[in-house]
Design goal:
The protein is an alpha+beta fold. Helix content is 20%, strand content 47%. It has a 3-stranded antiparallel sheet, with no helix packed on it. Strands 4-5-6 form a 3-stranded antiparallel sheet, with no helix packed on it. The N and C termini lie far apart (47 Å).
Length: 102
Amino acid sequence: SSGINAEYGGTYGSMLLVYKLYLTVDGAMKPVRKYIRNYNSPIFNICYSDITQDGLFEIILLSYNGLHILQRCLKTAAGYIGRILRDYTPTETCPFFSEHYG
């Protein structure tokens, strides 16, 4: 079975649960737990958003102890940024790059 581009988070009291959906051979969706984390206080709200505006979505939790922002692992982020840089076409000349690489 292959993973599809969908992850879902949920809470159970003070526990964060993150699942990824997999498509089975018969076409059904199967959730597989990918991540679990316990907090010291209840979680009131959960949101999945790109608040840093870098193209990578963060999990934002609001708990009794405050706001928690969980970012993706460094390996995933590095791969994403690498693809952006590989496909980047400059629209104007940057003095640093033309001086050093150009």
